[in-house]
Design goal:
Blueprint: H1 11-25, E1 33-40, E2 43-48, E3 63-67, E4 70-74, E5 86-89, E6 93-98
Antiparallel strand pairs: 1-2, 1-6, 3-4, 4-5
């Protein structure tokens, strides 16, 4: 397992940043997610915090959060600071890996 982090933040800032992203998106208060794998239109995607997001292989994923019936995959320009997150439907989700407590 991996210790919780938000890329580009100091350890003591990470929880505060995660809380701000949760509030912005209306995400559930659950353990932070490190990695998620889901299917969409016959393709399988895996998003991992700190790695390029899997849809366009662009910006690093800064957070993965659980919302109502969906997971939010966030980069700086998709859900964290601006814009809409990448959505992974919960019924299409194949695996979820949480950070260590």
């Amino acid at each position: 397992m991996v210790k919780f982090f938000i890329p580009g933040t100091l350890d003591y800032e990470a929880a505060e940043v995660l809380g701000a992203i949760r509030e912005h998106l209306g995400a559930n208060e659950v353990r932070p997610i490190f990695r998620i794998t889901w299917e969409h239109d016959g393709e399988t995607y895996t998003a991992e915090v700190g790695q390029p997001e899997p849809v366009s292989h662009g910006e690093p994923v800064v957070a993965i959060l659980e919302g109502p019936q969906v997971y939010f995959v966030c980069t700086q320009n998709h859900g964290a600071l601006r814009g809409k997150p990448i959505l992974a439907g919960q019924p299409a989700t194949r695996s979820v890996t949480y950070f260590d407590d």
